[in-house]
Amino acid sequence: MQRFCSRNNLLLANLGTRGILRNVTAATSSETYLKISDNQKNVEPESYVVPFAKARIGNFFQEKPSLGNHYREDHALQSYLKRHIPSDIFTSKVEPDLHKFGQRVTSEIVDLGQQCDTELPYVEHFDPWGQRIDRLVTCPAWNKLHDISAEEGIISIAYNREIKEYSRLHQMAKVYLFASFSGLYSCPIAMTDGAAKIVENLTTEYPWLKERAFGHLTSRQPGQFWTSGQWMTERKGGSDVANGTETIAIPQDDGSFRLHGYKWFSSATDADITFTLARVVGKDGQTTKGTRGLSLFYVEVHNVDGSLNNIQIQKLKNKLGTKQVPTAELLLDGTVAHKVSDEGRGVASISSMLTLSRIHNALASASSMRRMVNTARDYSTRRSAFGNVLKSYPLHIQTLARLEVEVRGALLLTLEAARLLGREDVGIATEHEQMLLRLLTPLAKLYTAKQAMSVVSEGLESFGGQGYIEDTGLPGLLRDSQVLPIWEGTTNVLSLDVLRALMKTNGGVLKVWHDNIIYRIESAGQHQELSHAAEKVTKCASSVVDFAKTHSDVLDNAARDFAYSLSRTFIGALLVQHAVEAGSDPTDIYAAQRWCEKDLTPVITNQNRRHFSSESTDLDFQLLFKNYHDRSRL
Ligand code: UCC
Could you list the residue range(s) of the whole structural domain that residue 24 is in? Predict the structure, then answer.
């Protein structure tokens, strides 16, 4: 009897020996381990295989999901790259590297990323003798991810340009494979890429900058590789940088500046360098307000002895997710800095960094969606319910297939931005391509971030309760995704950036967007299975252009729906074109068809509902503020 040591099991055993168990068993289950026939009545209970008795926790353990080579299992990524990179370059340079990296991501990097999630960064503010040191401590896995990023050339591939304009696509494909496994090391990588781009752009005006930093930012040697921050946000302004930036820059005799200010969100504070904005104090002791007062500064975060460059880390932020990233509030108290823009051209000069980090954001969005869908797909082959594995239930597969359509759409949009950037990098982008890149950057960022939130949340649900359990690593994906629509410009701010691009080019970006769509789907008209989708995309593209022309008075109000319409219609064109040009794979055709069944133009739908009228604006306000008591006036 020793084996039945819990109270319940003892009871079960007694009931069993008295023949009562048989009745209970018959009512609940017909498994053989509970069969007790009359001639077995005298058998010792411990010889039965009674559930929850031997191991006390049962005999069934769910097989966990696993991921294979993350590159090999990504049809959309492979077929897009094959379409756009000449085959000799693709087969000799790009594919073998991505294949190797795809394996490394799911075998080695995934564990490092997981460690970053549990060994969080912290700051030691004082040494044992009371001296303020603000030493930021990051875990070994985070440091290893720094080294891996260098070795893998995550930055350098894009700037060494061994395969010319295709280098950018190669690099961005790697970032996409890396991002959702990287323990958020993709964050410093995004900013470092932006910094490398700024430095490269400023070579003529500030040659010393390139000499000093470029080699480090693009190094493949872990010991030489520098990462960069992007310190833009202050207490008064995350979105409204022009009015919110209070940091001042005091000129020094040697041509450098001393910065005094408070940076409210500085991501990846372990960076070696950073770019930041500040207002130069003139001879009259005054600064200029607004955008025209902002200049761009280059800062090295540490002094030669390793101490901070007159920077105090006030605290690390207590965030919803991305806890792996040391995001800090920083006091700049005489920080030595170098001005690297004309005075008042700070925002315009940092915009190339914003372009890069926004494209990285879109890659991270696509990456987390891809990881979630692939994990859910694998799980559907291992998990049984109601007598069958999940993959045998059409309803389950339909749910995941809808997510797959979203991932493919997001990926094509983002890679298209990356492809154009690659052409711009080497100076061969036409004026139209540059305009398209200017427009696709905010669109890709804002649209894919929202997709990521919804796809990752839905994907999590497909694991049932396990999706809610921390140490499966799944909930972290959802928490970390929530930052994607926020940092690098919220959805509304980026929708307004779309309008900025429109205004700045007198509508030129919209014309290019429209022409580009028409060009892409030209060949699909002849394709029987795609002609309907192609027709719809053409119609939607025209109606969006008409809307912009005829409703310029409500564009501000309609900015979000307008941006969604531009994104969805463009993705529709990309999916249709891809289906035709990537060899008419049935899944590509189906993905394009499914995508185009959506409401591609919510701006038209909502205009027809008069959502942008002044009456609606009033009603929106009344709806929201009903019963609100204005305490600010008390
Ligand atoms: O730093 C942050 C955290 C870092 C974490 C990085 C992680 C990356 C993701 C990784 C994936 C895992 S978050 C902080 C990010 N902050 C923002 O994104 C700011 C959001 N706010 C905006 O974007 C605003 O719209 C501003 C700051 C751009 C608005 O500023 P202004 O001064 O009001 O804008 P203006 O006056 O319209 O533009 C000034 C100049 C103009 O050029 P000129 O003078 O030649 O006409 C604009 O055309 O800047 C130009 N400009 C741009 N150019 C403005 N925005 C852009 C742009 N996006 N592209 C090109």
Answer: 15-57
